[in-house]
Design goal:
alpha+beta, four-stranded antiparallel sheet, 13 strands, globular, single chain
Length: 322
């Protein structure tokens, strides 16, 4: 088994898990800005399962894909992959290849006759919707905080890979499959704790973690060549004769920021960049059609649904849907 580490974040006094009240209402995760960061060594699926079992009853902990950027700065720090433009704080996390892979599956209905309490059965059904390389691989299945509370299956499946992959590798490999690509970002929180149930509230899923059997302990990813970054797509022509280097650089920067936006910032990131570029459209430096096409592709790259992206662009860009 290849050795690896997983980056564990601790937010003392904060609840990184949903809370279910006796009335049935659900309190969302508590926001946490500062964390203590540690890298845990893991070597294979069994050690990964042990780590997840430890984390499951501890709501002040979560995991990220990124590695520690500076071992001297791991106490009370923010989750930063880039320097903060407002405070100047240095990055605390960096992109790193991982042998473990966490997949968030929350868009599949229960199979006919399925039972949310059967986490292993739900996971086996979800595994069949992944690429063929996963179908006979062992994995750790953990019911998310919404499983058994919201409709359908809401699971996190943890696999061990034959070779480590970066987040962008995972994003390219699993594009088009029913997994949330946000977890492939270095600083995106992967929640690992079970919900916190208020006294008198009953957990509809009493056993939230299961080890799903398989004939292989590791998943073999596609070849490195198959996952290689494709040549960058050319930006659309600006549709304006006097578009200069500034306008084109602004368009390229906006596309990059939207395409790499984490899950919780995808919508506001697209809106913000579209509003900024709208000024250049209004000034005649860029064409609305070119901006719309470029941002729509970037929204697809970060996983934003096409309909949601279209609604944002209709609202923010001159001419709306035209």
């Amino acid at each position: 088994m290849t050795g690896c580490t997983m980056t564990v974040l601790h937010a003392p006094g904060r609840r990184l898990a949903k809370r279910i009240r006796q009335s049935g209402t659900v309190d969302a995760y508590e926001g946490a800005k500062h964390f203590d960061i540690a890298e845990w060594p893991v070597s294979g699926l069994n050690e990964l399962a042990d780590a997840l079992a430890w984390l499951l009853p501890r709501p002040a902990y979560a995991v990220v894909r990124g590695a520690v950027a500076n071992p001297a700065r791991v106490a009370g720090v923010r989750r930063l992959v880039h320097p903060c433009p407002h405070t100047g704080e240095a990055p605390t996390l960096r992109e790193a290849p991982r042998c473990w892979l966490a997949l968030d599956v929350d868009s599949l209905p229960l199979p006919p006759g399925g039972d949310v309490r059967d986490v292993a059965g739900c996971a086996a059904h979800a595994r069949e919707h992944l690429p063929a390389a996963f179908h006979d691989a062992r994995c750790v299945a953990v019911a998310s905080g919404s499983h058994g509370i919201k409709p359908g299956m809401r699971l996190r499946l943890w696999f061990w890979l034959h070779r480590p992959l970066t987040g962008p590798d995972c994003r390219r490999w699993l594009r088009g499959f029913p997994v949330d690509p946000a977890l492939f970002s270095p600083a995106q929180l992967t929640y690992t704790a079970a919900p916190v149930f208020e006294v008198g509230a009953l957990d509809p899923v009493p056993h939230r973690m299961a080890l799903l059997p398989g004939t292989r302990a590791e998943v073999a990813p596609p070849s490195a060549g198959a996952l290689a970054l494709p040549p960058p797509r050319p930006l659309p022509r600006p549709d304006a004769a006097d578009a200069g280097p500034y306008a084109l650089a602004a368009l390229a920067g906006a596309v990059s920021r939207v395409a790499s936006a984490p899950e919780r910032t995808r919508h506001p990131s697209l809106l913000r960049e579209a509003q900024r570029l709208a000024r250049l459209v209004q000034a005649g430096l860029l064409g609305a059609g070119a901006v719309r096409r470029a941002l729509a592709r970037a929204a697809q790259d970060c996983g934003l649904p096409d309909a949601e992206a279209a609604s944002v662009l209709d609202w923010a860009l001159p001419g709306g849907a035209a």
